[in-house]
Amino acid sequence: MNATPMVLAHQLDSPYGFDNDTPDAANQVHMLAGIMDPDSVAALDPLGIRPGWRCLDVGPGAGSITHWLADQVGATGHVTALDIKPQHVPAGDNITIVTDDIRTADLEPDHYDLVHARLVLTHLPARQAVLGRLVAATKPGGWVVISEWDFTHPDDLTLHLPSPEATEAFIAYQRALTTLIANRGADAAWARRVPTAMRTAGLVDVQAVAAHRLWYGGEPGCLLHQSNSQQLEASLLDAGMDLNQLLAVREAMVNPETLTWQYPLITTLGRRPTR
Ligand SMILES: C[S@@+](CC[C@H](N)C(=O)[O-])C[C@H]1O[C@@H](n2cnc3c(N)ncnc32)[C@H](O)[C@@H]1O
């Protein structure tokens, strides 16, 4: 692994559809943390993470789970936060921030008590191979925890928007976004495939928990749609949306009348067999 921030050649062909360098990215990764951390912590906490554990957080974004893990493992433990663009992860005494690509990073075998990745493998066409690499880096008896959004129902997220035009624009936005990330190699259904993928990769005791919450206009989930529609504006316009539709989506996302489903968040946990 490379511990110095630098631009890696393979970042240039990254299939990840967003970009931590853009002006909206800091906002985006902090909203992701605010939206999902309670569900991630609820799934991670029962694993009994102890002082001294070594953890790997893959694609940490804002680094909120990196820091939660660092608090659990204490001064005798360690957390590695590995991201192609880790600039939003704050430093910490027992944290190493690594600029690298999980598809090719040099990972020490049998090293980690816990490997966590949230909203990363969905975007990577080599996701099964990446999962295999994460499993190999996990100690026998250690845990791999993968959280992903299920993007398979872009038409079914709408519950109430302020007008028929806003409803139509929001559905068009969800379809265009899903198509965009799929065209870059994302698998919209990967969230539901992870349990089988984990068993294929040799993990045991596989379990999953799903969260399907409501997002109100003006709250972080809807503000994330607003932020993403800005970060991906050029690509969404290329994909056939028009600017008026994007403006209608943004306006609806701050309107307190708006009510949508979140993308269902599925967290799957599997343990590496002990030898
Ligand atoms: C959607 S964000 C999720 C951030 C965080 N895990 C969360 O859920 O709040 C995806 C993160 O994965 C990183 N990422 C994307 N492709 C990656 C790769 N091939 N290797 C390592 N990190 C990657 C991105 O830079 C970004 O920080």
Write up what this structure looks like.
- This protein is α/β, with parallel strands linked by helices and 275 residues long.
- The chain has a single domain (9-271), classed as Vaccinia Virus protein VP39 (Rossmann fold, 3-Layer(aba) Sandwich), CATH 3.40.50.
- Helices cover 37% and strands 21% of the residues.
- The protein has 8 helices and 10 strands.
- The chain has helices at residues 25-44, 64-73, 127-137, 164-183, 190-200, 220-231, 233-238, 243-253, and strands at 54-58, 78-83, 95-99, 112-118, 138-149, 158-160, 204-211, 214-216, 259-261, 265-271.
- β1, α2 and β2 form a beta-alpha-beta unit.
- Mean pLDDT is 93; it is low at 1-12.
- It binds S-adenosylmethionine.
- The site of S-adenosylmethionine has 23 residues, from α1 and β2.
Short description:
It is built from 8 helices and 10 strands.
| Major β-sheet strand ordering | 3-2-1-4-5-10-7
H/E series: HEHEEEHEEHHEEHHHEE
Amount of beta strand: 15-25%
Bound molecules: S-adenosylmethionine
**CATH class, anyone?**
Alpha Beta
> Do you know the CATH architecture?
3-Layer(aba) Sandwich
> Which value, in Å, is the CA radius of gyration?
19 Å
How would the global form be characterised?
A: elongated
Structural class designation: alpha/beta
Describe the sheet with the most strands.
7 strands, mixed
Give the terminus-to-terminus CA distance. 26 Å
By DSSP, the count of extended strands is 10
CATH superfamily: Vaccinia Virus protein VP39
Number of domains: 1
Overall helicity: 25-40%
Mean pLDDT: 93
Unreliable stretches, pLDDT < 50, 5 or more residues? 1-12
Tell me the number of helical segments per DSSP (H or I, 4 or more residues long).
8
- CATH topology annotation: Rossmann fold
